[in-house]
Amino acid sequence: MTVRFTVLLAALLALTLVFGCRPASSAALPPEPTLPAAAALPCPLFPADNVWNTRIDTLPVHPLSDAYVTTIGGDAEFHADFGSGIWPPDDGGPIGIPYVVVPADQPLVPIDFYYPDDSDPGPYPIPPNPPIEGGPDADGDRHILIMQEGTCRLYEVYDAHPREDGGWDAGSGAIFDLYSNALRPAGWTSADAAGLPILPGLVRYDEVAAGEINHALRFTAPETQRAFVWPARHFASDLTGAHYPPLGLRLRLRAGFDLSGFDPQVQVILRAMQRYGIILADNGSAWYVSGAPDERWDNDVLRQLHQLTGDDFEAVDASVLMIDPDSGQAAVLDEAAFLPAVVLWQ
């Protein structure tokens, strides 16, 4: 019997030209998959088809990618804004943005916001002495992140300060249903400038130790545009130049970046940035990616990320994933656009 190899490259190219990177309609989406809990967490960090949990390694490059990268800093070093120990060394706090898991029956406490119109009202299940970003005496953003078991609600607070009566004063607060794709109302902030949740974008030690990060990462840039793009809901700037990146912008580590010389734990982070990318969530230092503090981090290993610069990244056009501007559900891209060359045996 004669075996003929027919490589359907021409057919594949035709399919790609016809379908491109168009998202499938919402009616064509498959049933929502089972939601596994994230590594070492009792609840999923949003549905599996949420934009945070969607790969973007095949998305088209944004036409303003070069301008955005240059504005953030093409030659600026990448930085892990998390680690072990405290900073500053003598009187600082844990390095990163901490979070805490509380039980379903955690007592609720009153909380008042100085941005009440953009906040979800209390009470919130804040435990006694919760971990605060920067430590209890910090002057910075003072975030508190709380995941509640049972309800699978995520409570996030910005600029949190305890009161003597057991309640709290804070800048803003947001409550997210971790089983829902609903976004905050357009124009609303959250505990983060972009109006997005913080916890789903953190690098956590347990998932790195497990060998895979299956979500996008949060990062900051010094100057942003007076605009936001899906899935962000809010801007935090007066700058209007088109070269400034808008909040919500998604970038990815270039596919050709060589991961082989890095520590295995750093490779996990790098692969996540190639596959899921990084989302611009706030104003801050250039290319600072967020994570949770953990005494198991090796800070010397994390410093390997300094070898990356902005020029190793490219912005993508994530709008092709949007089904509904008020939902974080991401469309399933046409499968035909990403099929490998097919070999038929006859």
Features:
four-stranded mixed beta sheet, 12% helix
Element layout with pairings:
Layout: E1 5-7, H1 9-19, H2 65-73, E2 79-81, E3 86-87, E4 93-94, E5 100-102, E6 111-113, E7 144-148, E8 153-158, E9 161-162, E10 168-170, E11 172-177, H3 205-210, E12 217-221, E13 250-253, H4 264-275, E14 278-283, E15 288-290, H5 299-302, E16 313-316, E17 343-345
Parallel strand pairs: 2-15, 5-7, 6-10, 12-14
Antiparallel strand pairs: 1-17, 3-4, 7-8, 8-11, 9-10, 12-15, 13-14, 13-16
Keywords: Signal
Signal peptide: 1-27
Beta-strand share of residues? 15-25%
Binned, the helix content reads 10-25%
What is the N-to-C succession of helices and strands? EHHEEEEEEEEEEHEEHEEHEE
Class from secondary-structure proportions: alpha/beta
How many alpha or pi helices? 5
Number of separate structural domains: 1
Overall pLDDT score: 88
Physical arrangement of strands within the biggest beta sheet: 2-15-12-14-13-16
Distance between the termini: 9 Å
Describe the structure.
- Residues 1-27 form the signal peptide.
- The chain is globular.
- It has one domain (46-330).
- It has helices spanning 9-19, 65-73, 205-210, 264-275, 299-302, and strands spanning 5-7, 79-81, 86-87, 93-94, 100-102, 111-113, 144-148, 153-158, 161-162, 168-170, 172-177, 217-221, 250-253, 278-283, 288-290, 313-316, 343-345.
- It is α/β, with parallel strands linked by helices.
- It is built from 5 helices and 17 strands.
- Helices cover 12% and strands 18% of the residues.
- The N and C termini lie close together (9 Å).
- Strand 9 and strand 10 form a beta hairpin.
- The strands form 5 sheets. A 6-stranded mixed β-sheet has the order 2-15-12-14-13-16. Strands 5-7-8-11 form a 4-stranded mixed β-sheet, with no helix packed on it.
